[in-house]
Amino acid sequence: MKITFLGTNGWYSSPTGDTPCIVVDAKDQYVVLDAGNGLYKVDKYITEDKPIALFISHFHIDHVSGLHILPKFHFRQGIDVYVGKGRSEDFDVLVNKPFTVGRNFEPENISKLETEVRLHELSETTENIPFPAAAIQQFHAYVDHGYRFELEGKIIAYTGDCGPTDATKKLAQDVDVLICECSNKKTELPDPWGHFDPIQAATLAKESNVRQMILTHFGAEPYLSLEDRKWAEQEARKIFPETIAAVDGTEYIL
Fold it and tell me: Could you tell me which CATH number the domain at 2-253 has?
């Protein structure tokens, strides 16, 4: 199984990377985590007819701007999009006119999606979709859902955008890979936005018995260079040595 990072910036794209998108390529399944600007690259990595599940953590624009790119794709198997409970309306508002081409087409539409998009809500109780997965609500300025799912006997957790809470510990507990946001260099408390810094992320990983942590979603303003990300990696490794700081194009074999 391979995890490839297509977008690793938070807030906006810059020379350090595109906004969030990750693709997990498992034996019988593709999983895409968030739909930021990095989504435009996904058809280079989805080359088989395996099912595609797209998990959307929340609807801040840096995580969903890539939904405008959906007309680019021609996936015969379609895409199953998963959102947290109560978030379907947010998806349908955004993936529709006047913002972009919608799922439901009226005669005056000049184009339509060639890839069928099927929308689902996912609860905090693990469901088989057909692989085990759950959407666990996290603390963020507007509701975020982290995802915890199992493929090929390995458990992966993805935080989306959030700050440390008991819900994040529930998300991360005993996972094989924790993909954790790292928006801040140092979080000033209280943090009304809800974001992690490398020390907080490493502490979470250590306390939650995580096996491997990959940092992503580096704030485009505090992390102006890839060297800044190396600094974050080094700081986190002081607490949790099994840490990697991702850049666009990073591949991790699980």
Answer: 3.60.15.10
The answer to whether 138 and 167 have CB atoms below 8 angstroms apart is yes
The residue written with tokens 């993805």 in the block is: 158
Cα(19)–Cα(7) distance, rounded to whole angstroms?
Answer: 5
Enumerate the domain spans of the chain.
2-253
Write the CA distances from 25 to 107, 119, 203, integer angstroms.
Answer: 37, 21, 28
* Number of H-type helices and E-type strands within the chain: 5, 15
pLDDT beneath 50, residues of the chain? 107-110
Angle at 154 between CA 195 and CA 236, to 5 degrees: 35
In sequence order, the β-bridge partners of residue 30 are 25, 52
pLDDT in tens, 144-169: 999 999 999 999 999 999 999 999 99
pTM across the whole model: 0.96
Q: CA-to-CA distance for 214 and 125, rounded, in angstroms? A: 25
Neighbours of 126 (CB within 10 A): 15
Question: Are 236 and 201 spatial neighbours (Cβ–Cβ below 8 Å)?
Answer: yes
